[in-house]
Specification:
heterodimer; A: 67% helix; B: alpha+beta; 8 strands; 13% strand
């Protein structure tokens, strides 16, 4: 997926005297298709995994009928059910915004996978400003959440949307600081460079002040994907379903897809920033990448099924009074250690 | 510093009657300023079945199964309040064995009900795992009830003059086994939930109900004891054999959600103590007194009171000497406890409304009758 095949394709294309932009367009479509299929499959796996893990934690069995002993096809069956459901748009809804919202939420969660280093050679586009791109794009879905909440014309939905906006924006700041620590340590915003800096087992999580950054990233990541203890925007017992209260069928499925895709993304990105992405012995790089990503995914799920939920003002004060100062401290500490020329 | 002068509007939010956290068909009319609750008006009546009126058209023994459907999480106490009233009207003396068995049934019901409280309360605070754990621990009690009465929830085991059935073989062992099974599980909840930092910030100091207000509202049961008032009918107005049993009346002085939660957690342990004592002392003999087949109490009125898991449960029966009562009236604790809700939630946030409502542990079947 990296430069190699792309260059040979363009070279062959130009040798036949065809314009370059067509080759680019084909390349983009193919990559987009691969990423989309990959994300969809991952979500299917994650939903199944979440059910199995929650089942284990809660001393239940979890899905066990559809698709053999382990209920492997349960999510596929659920997806099929959602597809066949009636498409309901509430009478009082703002139709256009209501229809657009799920896509505004879903598309950015696909886009961020563009800079994901699945392996030493597999990265769709290793941008110069990879980290910045991630931050910019992953901040976008909250616009969709507000659109969904507002257009639903439902009080629970609008409250969920406002909570989502407040929470996501607040947690973006410490998240950013945690990333800045990594950027300072690696000396580059390019994902490829960040991974290279950790090669050969010198993962950032093993270097002194970056453990703090890892902790901040892990906590804020949970808030970013709206999971317990930070699942305020959809808080089932308070706001019924929050911003997607009025959505059903496939439109709901898009929110659901986006949520799990984002969950995988923050975990995989955590692995990239702190655990050396695909770096590891014996096994092929892709395997290492997935082992690390899934380890983080499972940790986040574990937390979700253990803890109760915080209240909205507690969530906010936790971010502003604890995580932001801690993040600043982490950045300063990392910079100091870097200036000392350690590592 | 200047005060922000942006005009704000309050919003009325109807929480329920279809809402995951109103524990049934309750509607809370919340007036909100952003997330803050300014006013709360509980709207009830969605589950009104007219059980009191139905009582006037049924014979004395036919009414009994209807009482099961009041507080469906602890049907034994409803049964007993009604049966007590009729027994007082007729002047029936209940055999000793039946008294002990009634207490066992009541206390097991209390444990089952409090476990359900822990489950739903945890679920309201999104600790879904505790919900499933508590229901899992409730299951053996349901099995014990099923073994004894044939029903898991609506047992209708009480009769005027005693009990419908004696306990089956193997019951005592099963009940004893449960008494050793539950305490470690309760300790587990303490480790998983009660000591959890997030759970504590969500419950400590939230939904304060001062003792005077609790008394003014007519609260009873753990809701009242959670406000530090020592009031328990089992001790203050003992019925059956409670005066011979050794147990503590649990109170909490914090008056908050945490207080009400700890009272119930501790009451489960006390209930186990009571069950063990009853099993030790269980006398032999009949389980039902000699009562005529057709119950026709002499004209008059009587009141039966029981400390149900939710509080002071009363039943007033008026007889005109006929086969059907002239009037049946139930004093259901949840109704009064719910009346204290608006006082508790004012000034708190939406998330707290759910926690506070969960902490008073209402059963809508009882509120609406």
């Amino acid at each position: 997926m990296s430069a190699g095949p792309y260059l040979s394709l363009t070279a062959w294309w130009q040798a036949h005297g065809l314009p370059l932009w067509i080759a680019d367009a084909i390349w983009m479509v193919v990559m987009a298709a691969i990423i989309t299929v990959f994300v969809m499959t991952t979500v299917l796996v994650l939903v199944w995994l979440e059910r199995k893990i929650s089942g284990d934690i809660q001393s239940r069995v979890g899905p066990n009928r559809v698709g053999g002993r382990f209920g492997l096809l349960q999510t596929a069956a659920d997806a099929l059910k959602l597809l066949m459901k009636e498409d309901i748009i509430p009478t009082g809804a703002d139709k256009i915004v209501f229809i657009l919202a799920p896509f505004v939420v879903f598309v950015p969660t696909l886009l961020v996978f563009m800079v994901m280093p699945f392996s030493d050679k597999w990265i769709v586009k290793d941008l110069n400003l990879g980290v910045l791109f991630v931050v910019a794009v992953s901040a976008f879905p909250v616009v969709g959440l507000i659109m969904a909440g507002w257009s639903s014309n439902n009080k629970y939905a609008i409250m969920g949307a406002l909570r989502a906006a407040a929470q996501t924006l607040s947690y973006e700041i410490p998240l950013l600081m945690a990333m800045v620590c990594v950027v300072v340590a690696a000396g580059s915003l390019r994902i490829g460079d960040i991974v290279d800096a950790q090669r050969g087992g010198h993962w950032f999580i093993l270097r002194f002040p970056l453990q703090l950054a890892f902790l901040i990233y892990f906590i804020t990541a949970m808030a970013e994907v709206n999971r317990v203890p930070f699942d305020l925007p959809e808080a089932e017992s308070e706001l019924v379903a929050g911003y997607h209260a009025e959505y059903s069928g496939m439109r709901f499925a898009f929110f659901f897809l986006a949520e799990f895709a984002h969950l995988f993304f923050v975990s995989a990105f955590c692995a990239t920033l702190f655990l050396g992405a695909w770096d590891g012995p014996v096994l092929p790089p892709v395997a290492w990448f997935f082992i690390k990503s899934y380890a983080i995914v499972i940790a986040i799920m574990w937390v979700r099924w253990t803890l109760p939920r915080l209240r909205i003002d507690q969530v906010m004060s936790f971010a502003w009074k604890l995580l932001v100062p801690l993040g600043l401290a982490a950045v300063m500490l990392t910079a100091l250690v870097r200036m000392q020329g350690r590592w | 510093m200047t005060q922000a002068l942006t005009p704000t509007e309050t919003m009325v939010l109807n929480m329920g009657p279809q809402h995951p956290s109103t524990h049934g068909v309750l509607r809370l009319q919340l007036t909100l300023d952003g997330e803050v609750v300014i006013d709360c008006k509980p709207v009830i009546g969605y589950l009104h079945r007219g059980i009191e009126k139905i009582g006037e058209a049924r014979t004395y023994s036919q009414i009994l199964p209807y009482t099961d459907r009041l507080d469906y999480l602890s049907s034994a106490s409803n049964n007993l309040a009604y049966v007590q009233a009729v027994e007082r009207l007729m002047g029936v003396e209940v055999p000793e064995r039946a008294k002990y068995l009634r207490v066992i049934l009541l206390e097991l019901n209390r444990i089952a009900s409090h476990l359900m409280f822990v489950a739903t309360f945890a679920n309201d605070l999104a600790a879904t795992t505790v919900f499933l754990y508590a229901l899992r621990e409730r299951e053996p009690i349901m099995d014990i009830f099923e073994m004894w009465t044939g029903a898991r929830l609506t047992q209708s085991a009480m009769r005027v003059g005693g009990l419908g059935w004696d306990i089956p073989d193997g019951f005592v062992e099963k009940a004893r086994e449960y008494c050793t099974f539950l305490p470690p599980r309760l300790d587990e909840y303490d480790r998983l939930l009660s000591g959890n930092r997030i759970f504590r910030v969500r419950t400590e100091g939230i939904g304060i109900l001062p003792p005077e207000e609790a008394i003014d509202c007519g609260c009873s049961g753990p809701t009242l004891r959670g406000s530090g008032v020592q009031y328990d009918l089992r001790r203050d107005e003992p019925y059956e054999v409670y005066d011979q049993l050794d147990f503590d009346v649990i109170t909490a002085t914090t008056c908050d959600c945490m207080g009400r939660y700890t009272v119930r957690m501790e009451e489960m342990r006390q209930s186990l103590r009571i069950v063990e004592q009853c099993l030790d002392r269980l006398p032999e003999g009949e389980v039902i007194a000699k009562v005529p087949r057709a119950i026709r109490p002499p004209a008059g009125e009587a009141y039966g009171r029981v400390e149900s898991p939710r509080g002071d449960f009363g039943c007033w029966v008026v007889s005109d000497g006929g086969p059907q009562p002239a009037r049946v009236r139930f004093r259901t604790p949840s109704f009064y406890n719910l009346a204290a809700l608006p006082r508790m939630v004012r000034g708190w946030k939406i998330g707290d409304v759910v926690a506070i409502l969960g902490s008073i542990d209402i059963v809508l079947g009882e509120v609406d009758r």
